[in-house]
Design goal:
Layout: E1 3-7, H1 14-25, E2 28-31, H2 32-39, H3 45-56, H4 62-74, E3 82-85, H5 91-100, E4 105-110, H6 113-120, E5 123-126, E6 132-134, E7 153-154, H7 161-175, H8 177-184, E8 189-193, H9 201-214
Parallel strand pairs: 1-3, 1-4, 2-3, 4-8
Antiparallel strand pairs: 5-6, 5-7
Helix pairs in contact: 1-9, 4-5
Bound molecules: adenosine-5'-diphosphate and zinc ion.
Length: 218
């Protein structure tokens, strides 16, 4: 039973690879970003609070995030593995996670900033099923339409240059220190580096799968 974290900067490909691994491995994916994007569609005090952070590219406060995570972990069927995408993002969240569950492996996506900026500003997402596309590097067959479900594609409101810059800064300051935290705890790492803009996702996923198999985790 796989208990993994997929780790990396915004736009590193966490969601894209995690959703493909989900199908191949039959595990659940908990995507914090997706959960919050659903949450802000509601009308509630919590949702307007969360929205104000997301719009700025800032992190939602740890106490809120941890509660949401716990609720979702509890919903996973017994014996089913999971991949965490977008959690933990702060040292506080990582320490909390430690008290909740053990982690087998961290899949660390290493991507230079210039690729991230280029990718995020041209990213499109299916409104129905969440599949990620890119108008330059990962085009749908028909412009503006999802290959899988024919749903409409949209651009995330935080995928604009100003907010992207802030999300990268937040990643550098608050999230990247987690690498040292987990290395110190001797949690195994799978490092996967992206060097070009046209890296096909399926190839990257094959590499991740091969590394998981080597470790008897897939
Ligand atoms: P990204 O593409 O930046 O990785 P996500 O879709 O994972 O974006 O998350 C979008 C936004 O949701 C973040 O910028 C942040 O405001 C909020 N968020 C997601 N996960 C967390 C978390 N673990 N802690 C705090 N805020 C989070
Ligand atoms: Zn779709």
């Amino acid at each position: 039973m796989l208990k993994a974290i997929i780790f990396g900067a915004p736009g590193a490909g966490k969601g894209t690879y995690a959703s493909r691994l989900q199908t191949k491995l039959g595990v659940d994916v908990i995507s914090m970003g997706d959960i919050f994007r659903e949450l802000v569609k509601e009308k509630s005090e919590l949702s307007s609070k969360v929205k104000s952070y997301m719009e700025k590219g800032a992190l939602v406060p740890d106490d809120v995030v941890v509660e949401v995570l716990k609720a979702h972990l509890a919903k996973i069927s017994k014996g089913k593995g999971f991949i965490l995408d977008g959690f933990p993002r702060t040292l506080e969240q990582a320490k909390k996670l430690d008290t909740i569950t053990k982690i087998d492996v961290i899949m660390q996506l290493i991507v230079p900033d210039w690729i991230i900026i280029e990718r995020l500003s041209t990213r499109r997402i299916c409104k129905n099923c969440g599949t990620v596309y890119n108008v330059k590097f990962l085009k749908p067959k028909v412009e503006g339409v999802c290959d899988k479900c024919e749903g409409p594609l949209y651009q995330r409101s935080d995928d604009n240059p100003e907010t992207i810059k802030n999300r990268l800064k937040v990643y550098q300051e608050q999230t990247s220190p987690l690498i040292a935290f987990y290395k110190e705890k001797k949690v195994p790492f799978i490092e996967l580096e992206t060097k070009t803009l046209d890296q096909p996702p399926d190839l990257m996923v094959e590499k991740l799968l091969a590394e998981l198999k080597k470790r008897n985790l897939a």
